[in-house]
Amino acid sequence: FETSSTTMGFALYELARNQEIQNKLRQEINEVLQQYSNKCSYEAIHEMKYLDQVLSETLRKYPVLPALDRLSKAAYDTGDPRYVIEPNTRIIILSYGIHHDPEYYPDSEKFDPERFTDEEIQKRPACTFI
């Protein structure tokens, strides 16, 4: 599968379902492109903060990889003697589950790019967005 086209497809789907978000993003794109003589450059795209929020929210709701597979290289003490990760233990991290955990993302089925403002990102532990 192609990760970029999958992400773009889900982003367009959510924008079609959420007219207000689509309008806000369109306004940002038009304003930034005007500053760059209607040229879509790296610098112009880098200034599109709301576009970044929309893409981050798309990847949160529809992660490209719903699970990550890792292999421990050393013993890891979790702080609970019942849960010690031994070397060469295969670990599966469910990014989909983390991205839809209501503790970190209330109303997780709602498409809300505002979850990815700088202020909102600072409120969550770093490992809650993979």
UniProtKB/TrEMBL annotation:
Cross-referenced Pfam families: p450 (PF00067)
Keyword RNA-binding applies: no
GO cellular component: endoplasmic reticulum membrane
Subcellular localization: Endoplasmic reticulum membrane; Microsome membrane
Topology of the protein relative to the lipid bilayer: Peripheral membrane protein
Necessary cofactors: heme
Record Gene3D superfamilies: Cytochrome P450
Keywords attached to this entry: Endoplasmic reticulum, Heme, Iron, Membrane, Metal-binding, Microsome, Monooxygenase, Oxidoreductase
Entry's Gene Ontology molecular function annotations: heme binding; iron ion binding; monooxygenase activity; oxidoreductase activity, acting on paired donors, with incorporation or reduction of molecular oxygen
Keyword Endoplasmic reticulum: yes
Domain of life: Eukaryota
Family from the record: Belongs to the cytochrome P450 family.
Protein name as it appears in the record: Cytochrome P450 monooxygenase
Organism in which the protein naturally occurs: Ceratitis capitata
High-level lineage: Eukaryota, Metazoa, Ecdysozoa, Arthropoda, Hexapoda
